[in-house]
Amino acid sequence: MYSLLGILAIVLLVVILFQLSKATELVGGMEGEEIANDRNNKLQAGLFLLTLVFGMIGIFWSSYYYSEFFLFLKEPAAEHSALIKGMYYQTLFAIVPIFVFTHILLFAFAYKYKQDRTRLAKFYPDNGKLEMFWILVPAVVMIFLVYQGIVNWYKITGPAPENALVIEATAQQFKWDIRYSGQDGKLGVKDISLMNPDPDLAKGEEMNPWGQNWDDKSNMDDFFAADSILLPVNRPIKVKINSLDVLHSFYLPEFNVKMDAVPGIPTQFVFTPTKTSAQRQEELNNPEFIYELACTELCGKAHFNMRREVYVVEPDVYEAWVKRQKPLYQTLKEATAGDTTEVKKGVAGI
Amino acid sequence: MASTDIHVGTDTHGHDGHDDHHDDHHEELNFFTKYVFSQDHKIIARQFLVTGVIWAVIGVLFSVLFRLQLGWPDESFPILETLLGGWAEGGKLDPEFYYALVTMHGTIMVFFVLTAGLSGTFSNLLIPLQLGARDMASPFINMLSYWFFFTAGVIMLISLFIQTGPASGGWTAYPPLSALETASSGSGLGMTLWLASMAMFVVSSLLGGLNYVATILNMRCKGMTMMRMPLTIWAFFFTAILGVLSFPVLLSACILLIFDRHMGTSFYLSDIFINGEQLRNSAGQLIEGGSPILYQHLFWFLGHPEVYIVILPAMGMVSHILATNAKKPVFGYGAMVYSIMAITVLGFLVWAHHMFISGMNPFAGSVFALFTLLIAVPSAVKVFNWITTIWKGNINFTPAMMFSIGFVSLFISGGLTGIVLGNPALDIKYHDTYYVVAHFHIVMAMAAGYGMFAGIYHWFPKLFNGRMMNKPIAYLHFWITFIGSYCIFWPMHYLGEAGVPRRYFSFKEFDFASGFTDLNIFISVAAIVVFFAQFLFLINFFYSIFRGEKMKSLNPWKSNSLEWTTPIVPGHGNWPGPLPVVHRWPYDYSKDGHEFIPQTTPDSEIEKIPSSERLEVR
Predict the structure, then answer these.
(1) Does the distance separating the beta carbons of A300 and B177 come in below 8 Å?
(2) Does the CB of B366 have a partner CB in chain A at under 8 Å?
(3) What is the ipTM of this complex?
């Protein structure tokens, strides 16, 4: 009811403005179109100048006001973040002055060269030297930025170091599951055709939620993070990223980690966290701060709700946590025959 | 320079073989063949324009509806339930339908409004008129191109009302989400209809594009060399080439997706475990061997040229309008032409910058990064040339001029963030965040949209029988839209800097995304204000078609180009007599003391032009 009234009120306002405008045009017609036009040109030119001044002030003030949320202004929490931050500063160094300078020229020229019936514009169709200058300068700047960009890109997407901790993230609608390799440091082989999250026990089927091939003994100590995902600080982490159903994207905003999860094509991202959760909490003066894992490729209805918590801890805390985790194999074996609820409770994510 | 035996405007029959028998085969036209299935390019232009405007209202309305959710996630809005029924029970938008609205908004705006509504309208209107041709190379194909667009629209409209809802996997429609009915209700019949609509749309664009290229290459009047064409035509020319070469690839992407959806193939699908079992087709075969990344390559092979298809016509029109209203030649005509050419060529080589994070080989990423940052160079040249065009001009701020100056501002703003996103190392940070949303809205919704407004305000008299749009309302429309749309999209950069992902129904679930309640309200309020401000335009537009002030002179903007040499109401065939003859390029403004020198003026007749010789150049 109120929305309808509100819309009617707005339409009425628009009609009123329209009538006012027609009246203005009539008045302008009476006093002579040229005079009305000159007055309007001065007005519009002045408005452009005001826009320039207040627009620039607004942009710089609001950037400053919201800067507390800008990730790149925080201390880097991953090793490669320094590369990205440096790259961004170099880019900003090029584009911010261009933004300001070209806008000043655009709006100042619009103001200064507003119509004056006592003069003629300058017939200036081209200037080869000027063109060459502003082809070459942007080209040089772009080549520099591209070169830096590609160098950094190769550094970030390069192979994982030998001592990397390998974990596996599997996405599905609508959750993430993280598999760790356990004490043997090796993730076991999986096969989608072995997957059986909901077995028909009467037929003697065994539960195998992730399709782990138990012939590969490395599978037997693999565990899934039940809730918190722990990572050791200052150690390279190679995340192998999979998806079961549709495209998802593995996204750790604080660590500049992002890579699509593609069904049928494993992807990966290698990074080294350099700030523990505790350190970050102290830095931000926020004891409730938690690193978060999100999905950032539209995957359906609950795309916005695929959250996991990540904790970066000292290596000894991490090792202690690993020792406490129960391998999935053990949980599956311990489940009494026919009692799948027990298994389902113990199995990560189901 | 002019030969002595040719007068202005007179042409002997040499060029007009087409002209002579044009009148001969004029059968009796009935209401349908004259106004509905018209083969007159001017009527077809109007059809594209009005259809585009209607779709724009629908598309922008959808964005307002989902901005209600994003601005006030805890509120319920009865109007949502009124409009959307069960999809917004209790006034709260269903997340599935939120994604449907987002998908439809993108699809409608990019394809129906900014491609058909922008290119379709102005290529059709201006190519024959600015080149001195009676009509397009094939008026029949031209008519088909509109009606295929209309059909595409009808199919898309139908998809809004079906039970499982319209397509909801984003305008990019990535599989497997868009391929699997069980993954999302919008991937059912809604997606089938989306694909059918896109197929019709591709046909429409191809038919139009072929016609534009053929007309520009073959039907220029005497004296109209390629380098004497207005920049609008150069822009439409390269836009059509872009479309003809890239739209078929979108069609192929859609066809393979149709096969995967309905015929058990696995072009895009592999190793999928959904609904508790491994995916098989209806013949029981395992679905394996396909790649979702293949779809992305095929889609973006069109998708990237598509954004140049959106912006180039706007660039061409803005160049022309800036020159006309500043009474100065476009600075660097040659460089402007070569920039459009460079953007076209490079535009085909950059598509996978949308896919840096897709999982494709990083080496591929580096190749595309190189070309992407190179394409910034011709774009920069154009910006500097526009600014130099208005330097030392004598600017008349018509509504079209306002939107053209606004265009340059927005292209600078949006283009510069493109340089950030084109860098793969930085794209790790900004991909799929609001930084991208800010970038593409500023260059498309704003810049290209402003080009469309500028074109409408400038060429309204040519479209609608010599009538003008009301000016004071137009200025109000400009200022509210300009300030308002910057208020909508500029703050999205801040959301992007904080890492807030795009295509999120709600930000409350994540700490890192939930700190922007006030900013999201600000954006939503701005969106609502700008939406309603468009009614200033809409009422002006539709009212002026019937009751707008008639133009008092043939050439109200004192423009040099040929479209202003037709009668106030150009009939079928545009010029009642012979076709014009061109003696110069379109940008002789303020030359040798003359404010403007129309293209049809030979040197011998220059004295007949109103002279401004008493004025000094300052």
Answers:
(1) yes
(2) yes
(3) 0.93
